């Protein structure tokens, strides 16, 4: 429960403190054999998912938190697997005989009256909002577990209205004085990147699951993508990714200055998207001609995707530095003359 809310830097410190306070005491690990088996089955059914231990641990932490909290915040930067964590746990619990449904909405896309409802000052008519409508429906639903997921930045304009939901009252209070109690099969989940606009009173009422980009890394993202691609592509690409990507990511982050920050996972996804656009599904030929994509050709496409993903946000001067670093690593690059860089070239299929 406590480990799930800690950031990467604080987790080792917390463990060290508990070991100093309680020397020789080891807390036995809780096992959820049936749930873990269902999680593995859900992962096996989806070729884009990889059994990555830190991510699976987040699913277990979310499950344990849901047993004691009716309001949960899944916190972390973009593309660390928050959405898949929530949906993966719901699918796993459904496999175990407890039907779970996820109702997702973006509270930032609407105003507070559109979310909770509004009262017409002239006629006195009440119009329910999107969230209040979902809440009423969920309260009446029987035989099914409902998770209402608020997927978007937390805003003080609407988050304070949910304090009575998150505390022991578990009741949604509307402007027309309606009080809608929370059913035992309903959970309220916030999927957010930051809690800057949430008050301590709100945060203290909810269970917390922090998902770190450091725990995910780029390898599971690539492995999940590679599982959906033909073997004659991934044989060459896997070797190139293993040999070059991590060191080049570190080089760009420590030695160069990007115009805008993009997290590592976002950079890798951009690179994979570029490769998808360049590599046909069968790699036997292209629309322009029957040209077999040899390992050498795939290596050149790797360099092209590398340049426009990892180095896509560099300014002109640092693009030259990045070009020199790629050439120094022995990758298959064209012969440059004068002030040319790799950004001046593309891969011709012929």
Annotation, overall tally of beta strands: 9
The main sheet orders its strands as 2-5-8-1-9
User: Fraction of residues in helices?
Assistant: 40-55%
- By CATH reckoning, the class of the largest domain would read Alpha Beta
**CATH A-level architecture of the largest domain:** 3-Layer(aba) Sandwich
CATH topology of the largest domain: Rossmann fold
Query: How many structural domains can be distinguished in the coordinates?
Result: 2
Dominant shape: globular
Low-confidence stretches: 283-291
**Structural classification:** alpha/beta
Give the helices and strands as they follow along the chain.
HHHEHEHEEHEHHEEEHEHHHHHH
Query: How far apart lie the N and C ends?
Result: 58 Å
Per CATH, the superfamily of the largest domain is P-loop containing nucleotide triphosphate hydrolases
- Tally the helices: what do you get? 15
The gyration radius over C-alpha positions equals: 25 Å
Question: What's the topology here?
Answer:
Elements: H1 10-21, H2 33-45, H3 53-68, E1 71-75, H4 82-95, E2 100-105, H5 112-116, E3 118-119, E4 126-127, H6 130-140, E5 145-151, H7 156-159, H8 163-166, E6 171-173, E7 179-181, E8 186-192, H9 200-204, E9 207-210, H10 213-216, H11 219-226, H12 231-255, H13 264-278, H14 295-309, H15 316-328
Parallel strand pairs: 1-8, 1-9, 2-5, 5-8
Antiparallel strand pairs: 3-4, 6-7
């Amino acid at each position: 429960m406590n480990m799930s809310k800690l950031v990467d830097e604080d987790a080792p410190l917390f463990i060290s403190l508990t070991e100093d306070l309680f020397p020789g005491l080891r807390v036995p690990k809780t096992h959820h054999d049936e749930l873990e088996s269902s999680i593995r089955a859900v992962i096996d059914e989806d070729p884009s998912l990889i059994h990555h231990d830190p991510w699976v641990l987040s699913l277990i932490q979310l499950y344990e938190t849901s047993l004691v909290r009716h309001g949960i915040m899944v916190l972390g930067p973009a593309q660390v697997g928050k959405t898949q964590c929530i949906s993966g746990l719901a699918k796993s619990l459904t496999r175990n005989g407890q039907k779970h449904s996820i109702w997702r909405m973006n509270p930032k896309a609407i105003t507070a009256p559109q979310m909770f409802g509004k009262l017409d000052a002239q006629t006195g008519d009440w119009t329910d909002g999107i969230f209040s409508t979902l809440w009423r429906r969920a309260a009446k639903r029987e035989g099914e577990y409902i998770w209402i997921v608020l997927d978007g930045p937390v805003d003080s304009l609407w988050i304070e209205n949910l304090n009575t939901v998150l505390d022991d009252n578990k009741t949604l209070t509307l402007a027309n004085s309606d009080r809608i109690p929370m059913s035992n099969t309903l959970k309220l989940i916030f999927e957010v990147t930051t809690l800057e606009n949430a008050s301590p009173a709100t945060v203290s009422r909810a269970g917390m699951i922090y998902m770190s980009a450091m725990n995910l890394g780029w390898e599971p993202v690539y492995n999940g993508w590679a599982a959906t691609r033909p073997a004659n592509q991934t044989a060459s690409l896997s070797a190139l990714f293993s040999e070059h990507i991590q060191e080049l990511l570190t080089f760009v982050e420590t030695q160069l200055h990007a115009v805008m920050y993009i997290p590592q996972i976002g950079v890798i996804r951009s690179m994979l998207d570029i490769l998808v656009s360049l590599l046909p599904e069968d790699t036997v030929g292209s629309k322009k001609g029957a040209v077999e994509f040899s390992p050498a050709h795939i290596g050149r496409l790797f360099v092209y995707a590398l340049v426009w993903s990892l180095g896509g946000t560099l300014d002109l001067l640092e693009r030259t530095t990045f070009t020199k670093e790629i050439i120094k690593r022995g990758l298959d690059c064209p012969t440059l003359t004068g002030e040319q860089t790799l950004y001046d070239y593309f891969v011709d299929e012929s």
